Amino acid sequence: MNQKDFSILIGGEAGQGSRKAGLIIAEMFNQLGYKVLIYDDYQSLIKGGHSFSLIRVSAKQVFSHCQKIDFLLALDKRTITEHQQSLNGMIIFNQDRVESSQGTGIAAETIVKECQGSLIMANTALIAGFAKIVGIEWSVLEEVLRREIKKEIAKNLEIAKKAFESESVLVKIKKLKNAHQLLLTGNEAVALGGVRAGLEMYYAYPMTPATGILHYLAEHSQDLNVCVSQLENEIAIINAALGSAYAGKRSMVGTSGGGFALMVEALSLAVQAEEPIVIVESQRPGPASGVPTYQAQGDLLFSLSAGHGDIVKFVVAPGDAEEAFYWTAKAMNLAWQYQTPVIVLIDKELSETTFSFNPQAIKIEKEEAGLWNKEGEYKRYFDVRDGISPLAFPGDKAIVKVTSYEHDELGRAVEDAKLIKKMQEKRKRKFKLMQKEAEKTQAINVLGKAKIALVCFGSVKGAVKETAKKLGLKMVQPLILQPFPEKQMKKALQGVEKIICVENNASGQLARLLSGYGIKVDENVLKYDGRPFFQEELEEEIKKIIYGKSRNKLS
Amino acid sequence: MENLETNCLNTWCPGCGNFGILTAIKKAVDSLLKQGIKKENIVLVSDIGCGSKLVDYLNLNSFDSLHGRSVATAVGIALANPDLKVIVSIGDGGALNEGIAHLIHAAKRNSNLTVLMHNNRLFALTAGQFTAVSPKGLKGKSTPAGAPEEPINPLALMLDAKASFIARGYSFKPEHLASLIEKAVKHQGFSFIEILQPCVSFFNPLQFYNERVYEIKETSREEARKLIEEWNYNGEGKIPLGVFYSEEREVYERINKRKGA
User: Fold this and answer.
1) Could you give the percent of chain A with pLDDT greater than 90?
2) Alpha-carbon distance A375 to A255, whole Å?
3) What pTM, to 2 d.p., does this model score?
4) A246 touches chain B (CB under 8 A)
5) Is residue B69 part of a domain?
6) What is the total count of domains within chain B?
7) Which residues of B touch A405 (CB under 8 A)?
């Protein structure tokens, strides 16, 4: 088989292990030198229903998922009925549960029973059969299984061997020369990015799609030296994290829109008290509980405006795993340099997609905050010119007073008109400096040169990048959304005659943000069915706008 | 005695129960400093309301948090640096209305901190509305016909929530209260002191308290429950003061560290 870019879908009921199977398939191809990208689609239930992993493998780095499927692996019947229309290739199915006139059946559950395994191991049998059919060597499969399966590996290998030997090679996947790469989800990249910049305390309350950060850090807390705590609710989470920051520890919290809404009062506290904190907000469809396990970008304007009072904070929006690592580390550094909350705005698609990850490509280290020089009386809110007072912590030879009230330089509540104004102005000077920081940082990704630009933020970048490349368009992706890098954005759009905004929400929130800076978006491509943009469908939409009738014009 | 004064103007009403509490905290801190606890390792965390202003009146590390959230803030401070002695000053409204979840969970978690609940049995700084511990029928601006709800017994709540140190003090017995605070701060784990505090402006049961309070000695969990339920937070029963119950239990900070490191 000469094709070097194809998609494999493995699906079944929740509880049949299609997600793990997807990861194992991806790891096999990773081993063969392919870059991979896994989209996990699952419902908010534990058993039954329909879930699937869509694995795109390619000789070159890929950024988005394709609808067209080359190999359809069915643990159950529904997988075939749901996805057959996208198939342009081969079906491999669990013949103990599925009848199909086309494709290759594997007696997955029979093999499991013969080996006295548990039913979930049928996924191992299906993967092993698939591996043989596409000509992957047993040694590759074995190595990946040994690495990925922790429970009952001997039994799984026995099942795999039997299924592997029951099939014969139908196509031969080429082995490539690329080195094996790390596979990471966006959530894992966020966790590791935080650690790179000195994360010491992580607090969370479970909420999809951010829960993966909690699980990953809890599992690796020892190696990564991070104290991980699940507390009673999101309000406790952020307030405890602010307590830890006050005590000198780099702290981060993670949640989705609903949990973030509960944190907002304390976000405002972080600004008033000038406590550093990183808040990871992984969006999912709203309003309210919305659709917990699916994709959306509907919290952009909420995250920008969140917090009562006159507030500026940093909001950063990475678009893939490498950016998630970099920008979470950057967020932590910014939080401590500016003593401010920083929101890392991600989404389900970025959180839970698995990426081929190149750690060498990321250059960022922990940067130190400005500390008190230990001379004279310590004033937590010393009214310095740039508005950033030196930090000290309890335990230092200082009295460190912070407060949710407006305060004097010593951190004591005030109501005096002059003092209120003075402190508001101290913060305003800091906000101005944050604006400068946004402008001097490379805050916008620009790819290509063209008169038509596709503008997007967050994970939509993947589909936009591939589409822009294919159609010869420009891609513009802001990475810092507050303070908004207005000058950089205007520069990026210089000479552009048509701006098309591509967003995973129903109202065109990025376009509305841009309009606030006098940037008129000509067309808006919006997708708000809980699914990410697939590359082919975005390409079609953009072609319609460029060559055909324009739609969805934003007034 | 260690000078802990600040030059902030005290804005409590003349005769306010908070003065007695402030005196008791100063005495307890002075005693702790004499026993070798470093001043820079003491952290006060306060909430919102009259009592929470005391952070401005004490020259100690402090974090004046949001309404109801001070216990959660304190959990994070204690976890971040186990050398710190973390003392929360919170009102009955903050502890039992706005922030009751944090109080219960900090107790069951056995976070190593001390909660002083200034219990004036109503919201005072917002000019007199009922809280979770107001006597049923209390007339306030939001309930002119009287508070419609039964009061919670906060000590019974803390006992059920597995608080490892439970005590009650009285703002008009500052010496006794100071000794309770000192014991609570030295206790390893979550300590809770309810401090009865008459409010001279909106609800002043000074005489009622004076007639009913008496001091007890620490006892068993079973006996503690009986003593805790002696007064019903309405008009009935005598009011025991002192440490009801304490136990040694592994603190959250250590459990968290063990699982992580």
Assistant:
1) 96
2) 40
3) 0.97
4) yes
5) yes
6) 1
7) 64
